[in-house]
Amino acid sequence: MKPQLSWTKISLVVFLAALLFAAPSCTSDNVDDKYGPGSACDTAVVTFSQDIKAIIGQNCEGCHNGNSASGGLNLSGHSNIQSSALGGDLMNRIERPSSDPLSMPPGGPLSDCDQNKLTAWINQGAPNN
Ligand code: HEC
User: Fold this and answer.
1) CA 126, CA 79: separation in Å to the nearest integer?
2) For the segment 110-128, what is each residue's pLDDT rounded down to a tens digit?
3) Does ligand 1 lie within 6 Å of residue 94's CB atom?
4) Residue 126 Cβ < 6 Å to ligand 1
5) How far is CA 25 from CA 18, 19, 38, in A?
6) What is the CA radius of gyration of the chain?
7) Residue 109 pLDDT more than 60?
């Protein structure tokens, strides 16, 4: 039996290749993918366990932890994060323009959504919720 390359097979391959190239563009600026359907940035219910822990963990804790506390600041765990947050230092550094050498994180600013979530949580008294 001789394998045959039919037009159906060729168009299937072309179609799959096109899909492969098109796929990454779907992940770009889709608000729903980032924040869940229906809400650009939901700051109505912000909790330490669901939101804040991850924001600080992903953006700050690498340099501010128990073993390596840059600037003498440990941001591991609720009580450490809470005291920096309520003391004002945390948002003071986060809200500085990235041109300011004191801005945190040093690699570039947090997203507006993350900043709004932090502010909402701090306004509630930075609870361990
Ligand atoms: C790449 C490492 C790095 C990351 C990531 C980082 N920091 Fe820092 N941070 C530093 C260093 C180094 C200092 C000390 C120099 C200075 O004061 O700017 C510092 C200092 C600080 C201080 C002042 C501490 C004090 O008492 O003087 C605060 C507040 C702070 N960082 C908050 C944050 C927050 C909040 C994040 C995450 C949004 C963050 N940092 C992410 C390296 C980092």
Assistant:
1) 9
2) 999 999 999 999 999 999 9
3) yes
4) no
5) 12, 10, 21
6) 22
7) yes
Distances (CA, A) of 92 to 16, 87, 89, 102, 114: 50, 10, 5, 9, 14
Least confident of 30-39, 57-66, 95-104: 30-39
**How many residues are present in the chain?**
129
Q: Looking at the predicted structure, is the pLDDT value of residue 36 above 90? A: no
Contacts of 66 (CB under 8 A, 6+ apart): 74, 76
Q: Give the pLDDT band (50/70/90) at residue 59.
A: very high
The number of angstroms, rounded, from the C-alpha of 15 to the middle of its chain's C-alpha atoms is: 34
Report the atom number in ligand 1 closest to the C-alpha of 105. Answer: 41
Expressed in angstroms and rounded, the spacing between residue 107 Cα and the centre of ligand 1 is: 11
Which residue's structure tokens are 């290749």? 17
Judge if the beta carbon of residue 117 lies within 6 A of ligand 1.
no
